Amino acid sequence: MSSFVSNIKITHVLVAINIIVYILTVAFSFFFWGNTNVFSSDTRTLYIFGAEHLPSILSGQVWRLVLPAFLHGSLIHLALNMYVLFGLGEAIEIFYGRRKLLAVYVLSAFFGSIASVVVSLVGAFSTGGAITVYPISVGASGAVFGLIGLLLGNSYKNDDYNPRIPVNVSGLWFFVIINLMFGFGFNVVGSDFSINNAAHIGGLLSGIVLGLLFSTKNNFYQGKISKIIESFLVAFSVVLVIFSIVLHIFFFN
């Protein structure tokens, strides 16, 4: 049993959780709102499950800074994020281990949400409070951008004891720039939904910082302070998830 648990990859667990939650939101949308489209979830359902929503967060529903990383509005949205998560996650897990991969996913999503909230607040203040309807935001994109940031941070880490992961840095930056440009362009054109570039950028920057802080499993030397910081960040990420779930269950009404 212990060997089975030790062989479980957190990448697969994260992908499975996202897929299961999507199925639950689709089923919930069908049974409670009559939504028969299996390729998308009703926005009311996503809100109930913990989607990011500025007024709700400001009212104290802080779990909406974490739970959106496990929610997706459509099957395409889910598939794209899980494709990148599966590809990058497995590689990162080999070099960093399960605990640090989970920490990067959660913390990047968390700080991506904070960046999104800050940008939304700036927008609200700039319009003098003219905005009356605030959209919800969901998706693992901030976390996925955090994984990319982790690899970029590792490539720029000036540490002879910490082996660099062999990645195509130019290719990663190309992916980032193309996606951000697509997001900005898509938002300018406008549609029924928009792309949260603030969360993407926040997740990316968080990942880069973590890439500079975290050591790989096969590093030759790691200082005591570095170990303490890593342990704190890993523990903090786990606490964030647990508290978000508990708070949502007991205080959302």
User: Level of helix content?
Assistant: 55-70%
Number of helices: 10
Give the mean pLDDT: 89
Please tally the β strands and state the result: 0
Compute the CA-based radius of gyration: 18 Å
> Structural class, from secondary structure content?
mainly alpha
GO biological process, one term: proteolysis
Membrane topology: Multi-pass membrane protein
GO cellular component, one term: membrane
Organism: Candidatus Dojkabacteria bacterium
SSE blueprint and pairings:
Layout: H1 2-7, H2 10-33, H3 43-48, H4 54-58, H5 75-96, H6 98-126, H7 141-155, H8 169-189, H9 197-213, H10 224-251
Helix pairs in contact: 2-5, 5-6, 5-7, 6-7, 6-9, 6-10, 7-8, 7-9
Give a written overview of the molecule.
It is a multi-pass membrane protein. GO terms for molecular function: serine-type endopeptidase activity. Pfam families: Rhomboid (PF01694). One of its GO terms (cellular component) is membrane. Belongs to the peptidase S54 family. This protein is mostly helical and 253 residues long. It contains ten helices and no strands. The chain has helices spanning 2-7, 10-33, 43-48, 54-58, 75-96, 98-126, 141-155, 169-189, 197-213, 224-251. α5 (75-96) crosses α6, α6 packs across α9 (197-213) and α7 packs antiparallel against α8. It starts with a helix and ends with a helix.
